[in-house]
Amino acid sequence: MKVLAIGGAGHVGSEVVKELLKRKAQVDVFVRKEDAKIPDGARAVTGDLLDPASVEKALHGVDKLYLLNAVTPDELTQGLIAYDLAKKAKLKHVVYHSVFRVDHFKDVPHFASKFALESALHDFNLPFTVIRPNYFNQNDLGLKDPLMKAGIYPMPLGPVGVSSVDVRDIAEASAIALTTEGHSGKTYNLNGPDVLSGTAVAAIWSKALGKEIRYAGHDMDSFEKQMREKAPAWSAFDIRMMFQGYIERGFGAEDGDIETLTELLGHSPRKYADFAYETARTWKSMKEQFASEATSKTAA
Q: What is the three-class DSSP state of 97?
């Protein structure tokens, strides 16, 4: 079985590719640049999602498609081009990476794009599975400096909370849907076992790091302003609207979600606390190693 992984070079998609390779699938990873880093054992195919000819070429000889297109202003156009060409090629199955509660967040630009593509999936005959992940645990890997140096958890998760999911569980679920039977036409909500508010996550990091971590709160105007310093204005606004939705509507698992995911994976979903402790150990080890190397250079 041969799978084309669109988005297979990213943080989440690369984990999906690794899981597919473990299951003995052949995997082509659709990339824009030939030197893109992809998992060992996969093959890179170059193209552009806004160039239908290159997408069609990449789909030649492929049995199934994993579709995770990036959050961009033209995300829907990119996704529909890939999906329309998958229909034309009469693929056996598409697994589409959407987002949890996409139908409740139609005011968030990238959620709206994903919901529109989900609607297209339901209207045609190509077999599909939709996975809807929650906020990723691994989103917080980039918070090393705020957590370790400033003692702040800066993500505005709000007081209601999110059922944050581990990327490794997303990868397993996606690979299972692509390589085993019984998933056609199904939508899987991918959630972690705990509903985590901003203060709850700060408390977890306090224990993991052995120091007080304070939740920075959810002043959304300030958050968007900070995001604009490192992301395009449209992206900062999009992300702001997503987090604002978390605060206003919550992003906790729905009834039956954890049981369904446990059955799909064959094990319980990973906990955010376990991710935090694992990450804290890595960060502390790196800090100790750096200090040791600095001491050795000074002594020399």
A: strand
Taking the model in full, what pTM does it have? 0.94
Q: What gap in Å lies between CA 2 and CA 275, rounded to an integer?
A: 32
| Residue 242, both tokens | 């997503």
Instruction: Enumerate the H helices of the chain as residue ranges.
Output: 11-22, 52-59, 75-89, 109-123, 144-145, 167-179, 198-209, 220-228, 233-249, 257-265, 272-299
Q: Decide if 132 contacts 171 (C-beta within 8 A).
A: no
One-letter amino acid at 173 equals A
Alpha-carbon span 180 to 169, nearest angstrom: 16
Of 25, 167, 129, 212, nearest to 204 by C-alpha is 212
Residue 72: both structure tokens together: 């961009």
Secondary-structure percent of the chain, ordered helix, strand, coil, rounded to 5: 50, 15, 35
Tens digits of residue pLDDT in 119-150:
999 999 999 999 999 999 999 999 999 999 99
Cβ-based burial of 292 (10 A; exposed 0-12, middle 13-18, buried ≥19) = exposed
Report helix, strand or coil for 48: coil
Dihedral class, residue 192 (left if φ above 0, else alpha if ψ from -120 to 50, else beta): beta
Q: Is 66 helix (H, G, I), strand (E, B) or coil?
A: strand
Q: How far apart are the C-alpha atoms of 9 and 97, rounded to whole Å?
A: 14
pLDDT tens string 32-41: 998 999 999 9
Task: Say what the alpha-carbon torsion angle 159, 160, 166, 169 is, to the nearest 10 degrees.
Answer: 180
